[in-house]
Give the backbone structure.
Amino acid sequence: MVANDGVDLVVGDGEIHALLGENGAGKTTLMNVVYGLYHSDGGRILLDGKEVRFASPKDAIAAGIGMVHQHFMLVPVFTVAENVMLGIERAGPLGVLDRARARRDVRELSERYGLSVTPDAQVEDLPVGVQQRVEILKALVRQVRILILDEPTAVLTPQEIEEFFRVIRTLRDDSGTSIIFITHKLKEVLEIADRVTVMRHGRVVGSTEPSATTEQQLASMMVGREVQLRVSKGPAHPGEPVLRVESLTVADDRDQVAVDGVSFEVRAGEILMVAGVQGNGQTELVEALTGLRRPVSGAVTVAGRDLTGASPRDVLRAGVAHVPEDRQKDGMIPTFPIQDNLVLDTYDRDPYARGWSIDREQVHRSAVERMREFDIRAPSVVTPAATLSGGNQQKVIVAREFSRPISLLIASQPTRGLDVGSVQYIHERIVQQRDEGVAVLIVSSELDEVTALADRIAVMFRGGIAGPFDAAEMSRERLGLLMAGVGDAGPSAGDAEGSAT
Amino acid sequence: MSEPAAPTAAAPAPGPGPEPEQPRPGRWAALGRFAPTESAGSAILVTVLAFVTALAIGALVIVFSDPDVLSKYGYFFARPSDALSASWNEITATYGALFSGSLGSPSQIAHALASGDAARIQQSFYPLSETIVAATPLIFTGLAVALAFRAGMFNIGAEGQLFVGGLLAGLVGFAWHLPPGIHLVVALLAGLAGGALWGFVPGFLKARTGAHEVITTIMMNYIAISLSFYLLSSSLYRRPGRTDPISKIVDTNARLPHLAGANLRLHSGIILAVLVTWAVAWLLKRSTIGFELRAVGLNPDAARTAGMNIGRTYILAMMLAGALAGLGGANQVLGVQYTLAPGFSANLGFDAITLALLGRANPWGVFAAALLFGMLRAGAVQMQAATGTPVDMVVVIQALIIVFVAAPALVRAIYRIKVKDVSGTQPVSGGWGG
């Protein structure tokens, strides 16, 4: 499989260079080659005009190249200073680790670039945004001249992203570090990059300056055709409440309260978006609503029927569609063919089953139909689902869930990691369900998705819920503040517990 | 501005952030090898080559474990032909005896058929009959392990399930006296129920408490074997007039009828085995229960999310597996031994694990593998008698087959077979969302 095909990329000294492309476009692969993790089958890498060859990341680091991976490589139980000196430990006489020096390095660099990281903090106690700065510190201590950042903003709140941008600008201006910034978010490219290179299907399709382009042009380059960035959706015509949640409290796996006495309603024909940074109780909320997790207290009713603590099957059969957060783990059986994944929750019902026997003909026929209807691109209906792209996998799940009679749709991160085309398709389908009178509840940590789809918005923070608010009254700034727990609608505004119901 | 991110500082479980598009190995990644992900042709080819390779290496063991042949290697450089011809003769004699002991000799069969003498014909088919008799219980126990595999569980307990099945079938066989036909059916059902009961316990424990079935099935084996000792010494089972633990004799009505006269041990258990194999294949492929079993086996998280009851599926799978092994026990008591003695299983439940692996947890694959093992078991006796090569040689060959089947990459490397990897088809770049 060729992930990079004859790629040319030039990064100048002291520039922030965005590498833009969809998932699977080959951005990370390219950077892993530069960083010495993978080896190219051809072509050259020039550093300051001289050809270099990296057998491993060790060589790349020695040459002044650093990389911050999407998944951080930190030891959670170590302090910041310990993490930073890991691998380049200096020992004093008698072989004792020179911790003082590591602490001093961290403090100095942290001050110089305004990173506000304390050397003695334990990494597992730090929020994700600060952990990321520890990763950057690791690179700085190793005196990198080129810093590669892989999807650095994926895990940050809007405020953290602002702060992060400030840091990398300082890096560029004060020390002339070149920064390669891998992303698929158009807005960020326009805001921060000095130059942008767009990749598609393993090739570079163009390189330009952000000032000379628009979001629309970049999106078209990235996808290879004209795309619509906005979902066209008319005003909502909400009807009766379908989902009613009353003082629902849910515990997580460690028996800690993850959802704390939450109450809200979703009405037929409206989309309620639940925004929030990952890990604030959204997962547990959805699990409790879909029967996967038994709530501690509170009540869940769907269309007047009490479904508190019901089994997943009872919930699904009550007319609830569920598009789970982790599609490969919870949404499908990767080694099953597409046609079996399409009947994963209806295989034992009419028309697919007669008694104990499954009507394979019927399963096959309806799968062929569904593939056409939902534009699932695959060689055939018996192709294993694992071999599909993320977008097509999600279409399989959506096709399955939307083909049953439903009155409520619950979806978690429905477009995470999908290409622009698939995102657009899934969004359109969701709006279509709304227009047909389905009540829609979507959990998303992507701000763009929240604002694109929402009729109403609720924000989750530490198990509490703020809102729901009318989407029209919600600015991105206020949304960002609510996501960071800075409440502005309740009596305890500014307090960490600030949630209003 | 000093701590801009402070408000989220104590957010519960910040975690490593989202994990987009990571192909994750399942909890039972190792089981993936048993699932038929690679093409059937390639799987069969590898299995056949594994068998051939095992025989080749087995040949070396035969040569080097025979002192007579080995002594000729002492002057190998003076007269290499001595050593080589002795080796060749030893190998052909041993394998010849192994195969004629399991399949019969074609010329003998031809002559017997030509002579039209019933006794001679029967005699010539004796090896084949022995092979099938040895294979039949392995089909049942192999299916028991394979079925549990498909539901994502390692059933190490086929041995114990077979014991309990045999104990119950035997009890019904000698303690009750029912009309012909009915007695046999009831005895078989008793064996089925005994095995199902023994499978239910680990299934229930796993569903309710999460206790790992490998541990519990092993423990259930010990209990079953000790239980058999106890029962066989009790007045309920022990044959009157005997002091050693051996049971009463099963009624003729409860016996599986012979298929080819009383001189051959071949009995109707093999017909039952064919039917059961077909039923298991149908169950897995065509039924709603099989769909659940396979879904739970491959991805329990997704199965649960789609509304399947994981616990119930585990219990059901273990009960079905136990019932199959129990039938294997009933088959031995009602079809071969007509009585129960300690250790009447002869490792049938443990060989089953190897069989399920060899048959790739596919019902007809297990059927074929059981016939192969039946051949080796039946032929081994003849081989030892004819050439003095110990029966244990067969165990060596079985072990070698398993090594090569479990490491298909090894076989492919030896024979330079190129395969397109079909299991990990994620594009290289897909891993990290780049």
In short: Confidence is low (pLDDT under 50) at residues 489-501 of chain A.
